[in-house]
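Practice problem: DeoR/GlpR family DNA-binding transcription regulator
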Amino acid sequence: MHASQRQALILQLLGERGFVSFRDLEVQISGSQATIRRDLERLAQQGKLVRLRGGITAIAQDMEAGPSPATLPPLAGVPFHENVSRNRQQKEAIGKAAANLCSPGEGVMIDGGSTTLQMCPHLAGLNLQVLTNSLHIVAALIGQQGTRILVPSGAVFPEQNIILSVFGDDGMPRFHAPKLFMGAASVGPQGLMQADVVLVAGERRFIERADTIIIMVDSTKFDGPSGNVVCALDEVDTIITDAGLSDATAQMLERAGVNLIVAG
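Answer key — structure tokens:
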């Protein structure tokens, strides 16, 4: 396969998925690892994709020129104010179970979301360092004595009240954590998914800085629509959900090697 054909296929896969792992590229593209990496480097230099640990992500076309915050398009997906009251009891139980995984004094990352927000009341007294992109989580933690909060640089997206970098830079503090807590729009055999490619890029930056990836989703998210893949299931260490999870889904997660915690 000629270089131009390989690169066209790479961009086609990105257009379909938003994120593509190196493993998938090796399966889909005829070429050695070194050849594929040269193609990715060339496309990254041309500003057509972003290389991340474990894969590549797309650059939204209307953000390539470095937009001002006032011209940013809204994020795809359900707005936070609509999502926060859905399955509230299950989310509260999931949040408590997630907080029980935190050790006093450690650093953690908490991605913005209506389920991850429910961790916050249970973190008081643990003296954590928390890196989060969510202004809701900042507001929930800021009154806790001993909790230190860090936020990335970037633009505020009011639909989710989160901070995301869209200007081609990393936007993250020099921070590494043993645990990353994330939500999802949906979860399936293909992995963790979000509705918007900008969210995918932001969450991949968190993933690069974490030793352990912990996903917090209520059981309805396993029947959700497809979307842009954030990561494959084999990158996920633990999923915390509720008792509404079907036996078939539990078996699928077990086959993928995911540690399953059922809360509530």
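Discussion: The domain at 80-263 is CATH 3.40.50.1360 (Rossmann fold). Students who identified this feature from the tokens alone can consider the problem solved.
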